[in-house]
Write a structure and sequence with these properties.
Number of helices: 2
Structural class: mainly beta
Shape: globular
Radius of gyration: 17 Å
Largest sheet: 13 strands, mixed
Length: 216
């Protein structure tokens, strides 16, 4: 993930000041109703196209996949990390967490509380969490954008010469881009949902039987 994405998600987390309780039943922000730290629907699978343009304008693409159940308390995220495929699985209810290395078909256990952080990376702070936007100067609400079949509300704001557009539906990020001059050119990045379904594959949150535990 580029530094642009890291900065963007950090901005979102910092704006919702008391995020340390995100995975708890307690409300981490008095302006945000309890339960809205989860996704707005029970089950979903979103496939994305992530594109990052470097300083010369060349681009690299990835295809992250988000799968969740129980409003995000069970979550699976498939990512590409420096060319390697990695799968994160967290189940807050079962108190289990795993990191799967696809190339070697190995896995390691991970703290299940990390589910909150993974969930927030794909959470959209939309109209029902509109207290967020008050933290940003010069933000605007743009026209709705249809992405992966969903009519998404979109907000935009600028800071230090960088512009961010963020759109989503039912508290799920469907559209996210940032740029300094023009979208799709040097030093810009974009995350766009390409497909969405509320039906998820069986055993999405279990370690496959042909994986072995990594030893280090």
């Amino acid at each position: 993930m580029s530094s642009n994405w890291t900065k963007l998600f950090m901005m979102a987390a910092l704006a919702l000041i008391t995020c340390t309780g995100c995975g708890d039943d307690e409300n981490p922000d008095p302006m945000v109703p309890v339960g809205e730290w989860l996704y707005g629907i029970k089950t979903g699978k979103v496939t994305y196209l992530q594109t990052v343009w470097n300083s010369t304008g060349s681009s690299t693409t990835y295809n992250p996949v988000l799968t969740f159940d129980d409003y995000g308390k069970r979550i699976r995220v498939e990512l590409q990390d420096d060319g390697d495929e990695v799968i994160y699985i967290f189940d807050e209810t079962a108190q289990k967490g795993y990191i799967l290395m696809v190339e070697t078909k190995t896995y390691m256990e991970a703290p299940y509380v990390s589910a909150a952080g993974i969930r927030l990376r794909f959470m959209y702070y939309g109209d029902d969490l509109n207290s967020l936007w008050g933290y940003y100067p010069n933000y605007t609400k743009k026209a709705n954008k249809t992405v992966a079949g969903k009519s998404c509300s979109v907000y935009s704001w600028s800071e230090s010469g960088e512009t961010v557009e963020w759109g989503g539906w039912s508290r799920i990020t469907f559209w996210l881009q940032d740029y300094t001059s023009t979208p799709g050119t040097a030093n810009s990045a974009r995350l766009e949902a390409t497909s969405f379904t509320e039906t998820i594959p069986a055993n999405s949150f279990a370690v496959p039987s042909d994986y072995s535990e990594a030893t280090y």
